[in-house]
Amino acid sequence: MKIFELTDIPAYQKATEFSDTVWNFVSKWESFEKKSLGLQFTRAADSISANIAESQGRHFKKDKINFYRYSRGSGFECIDWLNKSYRRNLISEEQYKELSLSIDDILKEINVLIRLTKENLKY
Prior knowledge:
single chain; 123 residues; mainly alpha; de novo design (two linked rop proteins); 4 helices
């Protein structure tokens, strides 16, 4: 039986890439934008992969699924910050479209984690 590494989980990989992308463009914003919107956007983006990571230390189905749901919630929070960033002209239309597709993909991957955990863990 193979023990999976955290980096073997597609949702974790994609969430980490997403949070790095958010970090890279937020770090270039002016001070007000960073403090008011950027800090919260970055924290929400980092929280997606962090909750997936924390789920791996949980041994019971309900605990794992709860952390996947927290991760999914952070993903939806990112959608809100992404929309605000675009409406306030902090990111380009191209960045907006790219990040929107990315977060949609991450949310689908998290749903897969939830489904697989429900199907494969007994307790």
